[in-house]
Amino acid sequence: MPYKSSKQESSDVLILEWILQVKSYRLILDKHRCVGCQICCLACPKEAVTVERQESDKPLSKLKVDIDLAKCNFCGVCDITCPFGAIKVTINGVHNTALIVKESYPKLCRIIALDSMLCPKNCSECETVCPFQLIKVSRVGFDGKPVENITALSPIEKRRVRVTVDIQKDYCPTCKICEVMCPPKTLKVTKLFEGKLTLNDSKCPSGCHDCIDVCPIPNVLTVDKDGKVVVTETHCIYCGACQNVCPSEGALMVKRVKVAHERIRSGTWNKALERLTSKRDGVKELKAAASIKKRDIVIKRFQDELDP
After folding, report:
1. pLDDT tens, residue by residue, 85-102
2. Which of 177, 195, 185 is nearest to 132 (CA)?
3. For the chain, which terminus, N or C, has the lower number of CB atoms within 10 Å?
4. Residue 207 CB burial class (10 angstroms; 0-12, 13-18, ≥19)
5. How many structural domains are present in the chain?
6. 106 secondary structure, DSSP code
7. Structural contact between residues 146 and 93, judged by C-beta atoms closer than 8 angstroms
8. Of 142, 161, 143, which is closest to residue 151 (Cα–Cα)?
């Protein structure tokens, strides 16, 4: 049991603390990055994370995420699984990665491949369209000095300009908007979650746009000329924020079928995967992992036989 525990909340952050004799645990939830999705709630093995709807006359912006100090054991599952990087767990001020180091939980794979050599010299579209302002485009001339106004350069000077694109990958939910806006083969983003977003028009309340208001990605949910909600899944990250706020059960359903992560054997992850996707999809991954292991064993045996 902790020597001392505390919970502090403001408009910007939620902070939980455990203070022991030699260790100090801290969980920090950044409310500006949090979108009120389902991921941390489903992943948490202690069911310590809850999402609450705040009644207001104003348009709904997001749901309130709360963490029960009595249930939380600062394991770091929510930290690792959050697609927005909104939660950080530390031990004595150092980021807690014990679950990953001990292979008790996998690291999620934010695969973002960029070939800056293909970036147009005067283009900053990826920086402009990123809904979370995670991209910064900078340019350096042949003299090593930053280029502020590329249009003022001569054709030769423009060819010598080097473009650098900095992406805060730890906070990127991989919506792929930047990839679509970039020239072909310049930027490749692999989604963290794959799935399906389904809307049942017969159950969708007339005039309700709560799902649109809370969706963190622009134009995934829109309203057509008849006032009905329309789904465009191209950039959907399947976070489940829309399903959380939907007042009609079954009107909007988010189904995740796959999570991009490093290979690992862990009972904790198997249970989390089952909650994030489904028992059926969890079993599919386990079977696929078993097939890969069998293949590796066969390859190794052949190599052993071929070696003198």
Report:
1. 999 999 999 999 889 988
2. 177
3. C
4. exposed
5. 3
6. P
7. no
8. 161
